[in-house]
Amino acid sequence: MPISILPQDQNGQELFNAITSFFHTFGIGNLLRKCNAQKEKGVPVLDIFKYKLCNVFADRSMYMQQKTGAFREAFSKNTFYRFLSGTNILFITC
To answer: Closest by alpha carbon to 43, among 76, 69, 15?
Structure first.
């Protein structure tokens, strides 16, 4: 089993809490707003971004979650993929 500095639990709640704490501590929501990463309506961008980070650090995919019936988010796959391919979202690279 790989060693990780991130919390590991069965349902991912500890990981989600760690990411939420990180977002709050470093003001990620404000940074996303300053980068003009926002949606016109529906699920907040911050929720979709947290979901994506949880998947990255937990080594999961939306496809497999949907296939196994484990996908229980408040947004559809179309919303998620539109967020990923949005041309109005600016991502800063270091």
So the answer is: 76
